[in-house]
Amino acid sequence: MGRVRGKTVRKVTIDVLKEYKDKFSADYENNKKELDSLIKTDKRMRNKIAGFITQLAKRKKIEAFIIENSA
Question: Which of 1, 16, 41, 51 is the most core-located residue (most Cβ within 10 A)?
Fold first, then answer.
């Protein structure tokens, strides 16, 4: 069984990646800085989103995640 992520984290991640997927990489610190400039949210939510994006980037599944959740 994998980690459970909230609907909000998944939804915001999908929205951000659809528009700005080229700005993110497998570097967590870089992803946090990019999210700060793109969306306004609290620190905890930003960190959860950045961690999720980093995890997807490390597994090279960003494209698959966008396609899977866009339908």
Answer: 16
Domains and CATH numbers, the chain: 7-70 (1.10.60.20)
Instruction: Identify the CA nearest to 6 among candidates 34, 32, 41.
Output: 41
With beta carbons less than 8 A apart as the criterion, state whether 45 and 9 touch: yes
Distance CA 5, CA 28 (A): 17
- Taking alpha carbons only, the member of 45, 44, 47 closest to residue 32 is 47
Whether the full predicted model's pTM is greater than 0.70, yes or no, is yes
Residue given tokens 């528009």 in the structure block: 19
Average pLDDT per consecutive 10 residues, the chain (71 residues; last block may be shorter): 82 94 95 95 95 92 85 67
41 three-state secondary structure: coil
Tokens of 44: 């905890």
